[in-house]
Write a structure and sequence with these properties.
Order of helices and strands: HEHHEHEEEEHEHHEEEEEEE
Shape: globular
Organism: Symbiodinium pilosum
Largest sheet: 9 strands, mixed
CATH superfamily: Endonuclease Chain A
Protein name: phospholipase D
CATH class: Alpha Beta
Number of domains: 1
Number of strands: 14
Catalytic activity: a 1,2-diacyl-sn-glycero-3-phosphocholine + H2O = a 1,2-diacyl-sn-glycero-3-phosphate + choline + H(+)
Number of helices: 7
Enzyme class: hydrolase
Helix content: 25-40%
Structural class: alpha+beta
Distance between the termini: 42 Å
CATH topology: Endonuclease, Chain A
Radius of gyration: 20 Å
Strand content: 15-25%
GO molecular function: phospholipase D activity
CATH architecture: 2-Layer Sandwich
Amino acid sequence: MWLGASEVVADIFQEHRRMISKASRSVYIENQYFGSRLSSAEEAQSPRCQALHSHTQNDLAHLLFEKITTKATLGEKFSAVVVFPLATEESETHYPNLRTAQCLQEALEGFWKANKISSPLSEYFGMYNLANVVPVNTTSSAFYGIFVHSKLMAIDHDSDSGAEAIVGSANLNDRSLLGDRDAEVSLGVKGTFVQALMSTLFQSHAASALPRAVDLQRRLSEAAESNAGRLKDVGINWDEGTLGSKKLLDQNEQDDGFLPELDMSEAFQVGSGVHWKMLPGKALQKGLQGYLLPWRPALWGDADVYRSWKHYHPSGAWLQT
């Protein structure tokens, strides 16, 4: 809450809500955190979501679900994109991101199936992480995550009258949005700057020219899926969450109910985005197209693994290899 204010100030939250509701062609979200809730009916579309505990109050995920499903039902083209980090800096704060992503994806899949939507969900919605692989020498490569710390949302970037963006310090979680905890500052912009901003982001993430707003998700998906395929050159199966024969993350509890202690000599820290994972004997045949990779639940497993403090590691969230 702002010092000196006599009431809760939640303008940033309301501006995000207004923009999602107003969007007619696209919503692009890039944020360090994506902790939000669906409605009870929407969460019922997800077989797993209702069992994943949450006290989250902000409803941005609900508004996004509502916008996507309305556009799909009407047969109107629309793109909704969320870019967030492979992991948050502290592993215990990773749970809200995973829960929101898992619930939203499964709820949308349930809606698509129940309503027999003919167009694929992938034309309307996608979630992504940023990472890269670079050659070290002729026989080895290194993989590293890129830590997303942005706090921005843009809508309808190719609309002369409707293009808007909000950029600032607010994460998409209750701590930043509800107005009774952290004080945040964001800037709302309209007009040609929005397209320039999105063009810069698209060139960085997908190494390509910015498409029409309604084609944003499809084009990002093409780049991300291509990058995921190229990772197989260095032994990473992104879809299955494996490096060679091993899971990227050891998600199995021990007999005493505790999660295994992560071996720092064999673990790859992605939370802070500063650690490299050497892949000896693996040479990337063709570099990635930008840094975009599709979000895959197999990377981290079920969100419930991260709900309690027993998985906390003071150095951050880790991929176990």
